[in-house]
Write a structure and sequence with these properties.
The structure holds 3 protein chains of 3 kinds. By secondary structure, chain A is mostly helical. Chain A contains 10 helices and no strands. Chain A has one domain: MetI-like fold. Classes of the chains: A mainly alpha, B mainly alpha, C alpha/beta.
């Protein structure tokens, strides 16, 4: 182990670690690019339907199922499966198989948290809005979504960390990122680049998490009801309703 | 996009070559056992460790945040990176031990949070009744709180197991892998069939475990099925039964809600 | 109450059982990797000695050749298994050193250039090159046996379209007109004397910035689909001909005599002597370049397993039962 650490130290002090296509900056940038792309697409795809369903308070079954199914599918398999098709249909190596798999991975937490967040807006708040003459759409925009922000952010946060972590697998389908030195390092005598890459991506994941915590502190200045910012803790009654729906 | 003249590389390569599947069913069985044993070992060991940590966290409250934080950091480390670090440790190297250590780490956060949530969720009346009946604190925890926390614990085991099944596929890259071996083989040979088979089988295994846990949950919590609080004569025993039922309901769904929408969602790969 | 303790104990027991079952040896041998005791031949002749572990590098042809050795040796009564290396020559020599592997098929010129750190000693003459290789092997307590006439060199391949568009039919043309093209090949291209360093030293062409490392099986498809411009394939890859691709001519003789040959430890030679080396020599004598092309075709196109392909070759050439 100390030998490997020394290799990492040597590597980090070398020029090649910091320049060119295989240098840490380039790899990190590629990693960030694909993660952001996947998150944007996933958010665009998942948030609107989740808000809509939450607003009409339907689709609890969908929300829970999406999460359960999403948990069971290994992203590794999806990326691997997409590669031959991506090649044959002209989408090339690397970017597309990786980003599609990452989007699929990112959707469940965003969807479920957004849905739960909108649906759990206290009934009195919604009634008050109605009472003031707001239309459905206005209620959504001015009451439900703002109140749901803490949970939406939680969903985005969970997704983002997972996406950053899983993007490393993109190295296996020729998307050059921080996962690339890790994978090549598995069977190479020089573990320097591998440990450097591992360290970098672990830091990146932690930083991503921290950024979202910061964002939620900034965007949610008021103290939300206890237990609602950290987790999507569903109240017992509503959860029982979910239980009935899902058996 | 330039294409060759002959159909060798054309989209003719079928998604699944069934003759290949038929020829290799023996291998699938071997891989199944490999996958299952790695999953069970990881979740079992993770459960043992988490249980200890949870009991500590409940007894000495201030330890919870640091413990959960540490487990959270482990959870956030991308699996590939963790594998990379572990294989450089001479005692581990490529193979089973590195895979196991990494897999166990990923179960800790989920299980710790769920067990603690379960224990916390025990209704105060129940605790008081139990204390009133003369249980010492530790015995009360073991004989009253834990059983009542069962729904939350089982929910946590369910999530941890399904997550682990997915992560085991990635261990193929460091020489283990179960069904991940198939995926890896297909990937490096540009051969879709084993990828499809590997993916389908690992999803099937995850679903099978999920169903298994739903069944276990039902078996272990008969009072939850009894249908909730009863009205009528409210003697101590009834109060206890009511509280149990209410706790069970709260337990189960608080944990599911918390875990499914929180950090337990999706597969961290 | 007790029920939960029992469940907990059962879970723990199950997990320990899982841990015990899962902890296999590190040798990731394929299903045909167990020791094969000969069915008809007399194992009594085989002296006591170490089990033979054959190293297979991470591409089809290496796996097939390893299986051929294994099949023949197993049938002759030796205790033998195949060890997949998950990589290339650097791992192979690491495995020789650590004792994980004591026999492997390899290629004369490439191995020489690996051991002499790309000094450029290899030539197109296999005997000459082999002579230079032997002392280097001896330094490592290894022995190379007589090379086969079967040859597999690196092949730089472009599509007909690329060749026509840029007027490229040789590596010199590539150096002149192809600096911006992407090269795709196995990861060890960056350090393989007959890949990027060779192009640089002999042709003055540095493709390291435009290099895309790919798994061996992906290179052909990537080339065909235009994801890369130049593919590093093997000269025994039948798809070059069947796809109508253009194998760029090595007009300045960068490539050298890459004949297939077995390399094994001195220990194996000392323990098992002529019986072992004679058998391996027989295999080498029977192996031709046409054979390699056909063996690869069955692997890459028909998707047959290395073991089966090897088994057929052995029976067709009179080895084994």
């Amino acid at each position: 182990m100390s030998e490997s650490l020394r290799q990492m130290w040597d590597y980090l002090q070398s020029d090649e670690a910091w320049s060119g296509r295989n240098g840490l900056p380039a790899l990190t940038w590629a990693h960030i690019q694909i993660s952001v792309a996947a998150m944007l697409i996933a958010a665009l795809v998942a948030i609107p339907p989740a808000v809509a369903l939450g607003h009409v308070r339907r689709g609890a079954l969908a929300a829970v199922s999406v999460v359960n199914i999403g948990r069971a599918i290994p992203s590794f398999a999806i990326m691997a499966l997409l590669l031959p098709f991506s090649l044959r249909y002209g989408f090339g190596l690397g970017f597309w198989p990786t980003v599609v798999a990452l989007v699929l991975l990112a959707i469940p937490p965003i969807f479920t948290n957004t849905y739960t967040g909108v649906r759990d807006v206290p009934a009195d708040a919604v009634e008050a809005a109605r009472g003031m003459g707001m239309s459905g759409g206005e209620t959504v925009r001015r009451v439900e979504v703002p109140v749901a922000v803490p949970l939406i952010l939680t969903g985005l946060r969970v997704s983002a960390v997972q996406v950053v972590a899983t993007a490393t697998l993109g190295a296996l389908v020729a998307y050059r990122n921080l996962g690339t030195p890790i994978v090549t390092g598995f069977t190479s005598p020089d573990k320097g680049p591998m440990l450097a890459g591992a360290l970098a991506v672990a830091l990146l994941a932690l930083v991503t998490d921290a950024l979202f915590v910061l964002a939620s502190r900034l965007l949610v200045p008021w103290r939300a009801p206890a237990g609602r910012t950290a987790d999507a803790t569903v109240t017992a009654e509503e959860a029982a309703a979910v239980a009935v729906a899902t058996g | 996009m330039s294409r060759g003249a002959a159909p060798l590389l054309a989209v003719d390569e079928p998604l699944v070559r069934w003759d290949w599947v038929r020829d290799h069913t023996d291998d699938f069985v071997d891989l199944f056992w490999e996958h299952v044993s790695l999953t069970v070992a990881a979740v079992g060991i993770g459960f043992a460790i988490s249980m200890v940590l949870a009991l500590v966290a409940v007894r000495w409250r201030w330890t919870y945040e640091p413990l959960a934080g540490f487990c959270g950091v482990l959870y956030a480390i991308p699996s590939l990176a963790l594998f990379g670090v572990l294989i450089t440790i001479p005692a581990f190297g490529l193979g089973f031990r590195s895979a196991l250590v990494a897999l166990v780490s990923y179960t800790l956060l989920i299980l710790l949070r769920n067990i603690v949530a379960g224990l916390d969720g025990v209704a105060p009346e129940v605790r008081e009744a139990a204390d009133g009946m003369g249980h010492e604190p530790w015995r009360r925890v073991l004989r009253v709180d834990l059983p009542l926390a069962t729904p939350a614990i089982v929910a946590g085991l369910r999530i941890a197991t399904v997550t682990t099944v997915g992560l085991v596929t990635v261990t193929a890259l460091i020489g283990e892998g179960g069904f991940g071996d198939l995926i890896n083989d297909g990937l490096s040979r540009d051969f879709p069939t084993p990828i499809v088979v590997g993916a389908v089988l690992s999803v099937a295994l995850a679903v099978a475990f999920d169903v298994l846990f739903v069944v276990v949950e039902r078996l272990l919590t008969p009072w939850a099925r009894a249908g909730g609080p009863r009205r009528g004569d409210r003697g101590a025993a009834d109060a206890l039964a009511d509280a149990r039922a209410r706790t069970a309901h709260d337990q189960k769904w608080i944990a599911v809600g918390r875990a499914s929408a929180g950090a337990g969602t999706g597969v961290l790969q | 109450m007790r029920r939960h303790v029992r469940v907990g104990a059962a879970l723990l027991a199950l997990s320990l059982l899982g841990a015990a079952c899962g902890d296999d040896d590190d040798s990731d041998a394929e299903s045909g990797g167990e020791a094969e005791t000969g069915t008809a031949s007399a194992p009594a002749e085989i002296p006591d000695g170490p089990a033979i572990s054959i190293g297979a590098q991470d591409f089809g042809e290496s796996a097939i050749l390893a299986e051929i050795y294994e099949g023949a040796l197993g049938d002759a009564g030796y205790e033998v298994g195949v060890q997949e290396l998950g990589g290339f020559r650097d791992l192979l020599f690491g495995a020789f050193e650590s004792g994980e592997v004591n026999l492997a098929p390899d290629y004369v010129a490439s191995q020489l250039e690996f051991l002499n750190e790309q000094a450029g000693e290899a030539t197109g003459d296999v005997d000459e090159t082999f002579e230079l290789l032997q002392p280097r092997l001896a330094e490592r307590d290894l022995v190379g046996l007589t090379p086969s006439e079967a040859v597999d060199t690196n092949a730089f391949v472009v599509t007909q379209e690329t060749s026509d568009d840029l007027g490229i039919t040789s590596l010199s043309d590539l150096a002149e007109n192809g600096q911006d093209l992407t090269l795709g090949g196995p990861q060890d291209c960056e350090s393989n004397a007959f890949c990027i360093p060779g192009l640089r030293d002999v042709y003055g062409l540095d493709m390291s910035d435009n290099f895309e490392p790919l798994d061996a099986g992906l290179v052909a498809t990537s080339l065909g689909e235009g994801a890369i411009d130049v593919g590093l394939l093997f000269s025994t890859d039948g798809r070059i001909a069947s796809e109508g691709w253009v194998l760029l001519e090595d007009d300045q003789n960068m490539l050298a005599a890459d004949n297939v040959f077995p390399v094994l430890t001195q220990e194996l030679v000392d323990t098992y002597g002529d019986d072992l080396t004679g058998l391996l020599d027989d295999i080498s004598a029977e192996l031709t370049t046409e054979d390699l092309i056909e063996l690869n075709r069955r692997f890459d196109v028909d998707r047959e397993d290395a073991e089966d392909i090897a088994g057929d070759w052995l029976s067709e050439h009179g080895f084994g039962d």
